[in-house]
Amino acid sequence: MRTASRLDDVEESATLKVTRRAAELKAAGRRILSFGAGEPDFDSPPVAVEAARDALRSGFTRYTQANGIPELRSALADRYRKDYGSPWTADQFIITVGGKAALFELAMALFESGDEVIVPTPCWVSFPDQIRLAGATPVLVPMAPEDGFQIKAEPIVAAITPRTRAIIVNSPCNPTGGILERADLEGLVAAAAAAGVHVVTDETYESFLYDGRRFASGASLAAQYPETIILVGSFSKTYAMTGWRVGYAAGPPEVIEAMGRIQGHMTSNPTSFAMVGALAALRDGGPQVVAMTAEFEARRDLLVAGLALLPGVTCPPPAGAFYAFPDVSGLRRQGLGGSLDIAEFFLEEANVAVVPGIAFGNDDHLRLSFACSRENIEEGLQAMREALARRLD
Ligand SMILES: Cc1ncc(COP(=O)(O)O)c(C=O)c1O
């Protein structure tokens, strides 16, 4: 069977092997302690559930405007204006089937053969493949592990060439938890604007920042650089609404219009009643987000403290998101190979599922999600400690 050649360079996820093996072990009756989840383990806000239920009951079950319900686009425009002073009107927002669809539509709308798109790495698995699917070339710029993979403007700006079409930054970052500080955001956007390059800010994890840090949103520079900034956001992680599939983008009218044309031929509107639930979450879900963030911070501290006790493992505390990204290259001295090998070792010998860093472009690290219970974290750390002690004996 022949598939289209555009798929030739699109890789199967390196995480799948470990995920598949974890599923096999579970099916065979083993209890697996998982650090794999890329989603909050909390319930969606009750206000969202009630609003979606009411919408269903009242028959709000038909197609809506293809770009999403005006009430939600308006509420988002108000929120970003109030929080960050952005100039975007409701028409400059498009509601999409998760942030993933927004990023995909953006890639289709903006990138083509001959274009380069800069992505700091380690990065979320879908960025490079979405860029490739659009026919363009991802230019991966490594960030430094020493400072927890903080996203720095300088190496990114140095990678701009006449072919660069856009820079995609994801702060806080999946998988590293690294963030883009305000000064770096400003430097990056100013340089990109001067070069006529778009900056796409993927703000999927915007709510989850720790140690009192403040989030630097692309929206805060949109008034100054209206042609440059394109923001992607999502209800998935912020409100524990991953399965609802509601995300959005905001930016220059021409870009949003082009995305709308693509969405009109692809998904049409996101699910009608899910958007009503998202609107309720946006209006009244704030307290739950604050509580979730505080719990994630406590879990982060627990996980980072435990990882520090593992021989051959180092992990600066992640500044944001809900992932730790420890350096496990020290385990090579114990005869373990790359991150895939190490992930397999923890799965087979400790019943602990983690994601190998190679999936995100870095073979010296593992990704551990702390969107799981404190008990899971404590038990998992102990099992890893014991497995390593057995190996070192
Ligand atoms: C960095 C990043 N961007 C975007 C997404 C897309 O999330 P969703 O499509 O659920 O909004 C994810 C999900 O894991 C992510 O980690």
Tell me the name of the CATH class of the largest domain: Alpha Beta
Q: Nearest-angstrom radius of gyration?
A: 21 Å
pLDDT averaged over residues = 95
Q: Main beta sheet: strand number and arrangement?
A: 7 strands, mixed
Ligand names: pyridoxal-5'-phosphate
Quickly count the domains. 2
Sheet with the most strands: spatial strand order: 2-8-7-6-5-3-4
End-to-end Cα distance: 50 Å
Query: What's the CATH superfamily of the largest domain, by name?
Result: Type I PLP-dependent aspartate aminotransferase-like (Major domain)
Number of strands: 12
Q: How is the CATH topology of the largest domain named?
A: Aspartate Aminotransferase, domain 2
What is the number of helical segments per DSSP (H or I, 4+ residues)? 12
Derived structural class: alpha/beta
User: Can you write the helix and strand succession as a string?
Assistant: HEHHEHEHEHEHEEEHHHEHEEEH
Chain oligomer state: single chain
Shape: globular
Descriptive overview:
It is a single chain. The chain has a seven-stranded mixed β-sheet, sandwiched between helices. A three-stranded antiparallel β-sheet has the order 9-12-11. The protein has a two-stranded parallel sheet with strand order 1-10. The chain is α/β, with parallel strands linked by helices and 393 residues long. The termini are far apart. The protein is built from twelve helices and twelve strands. It folds into two domains: 145 residues, Aspartate Aminotransferase, domain 1 (Alpha-Beta Complex); 238 residues, 3-Layer(aba) Sandwich (Aspartate Aminotransferase, domain 2). It binds pyridoxal-5'-phosphate. The site of pyridoxal-5'-phosphate has 13 residues, from helix 4.
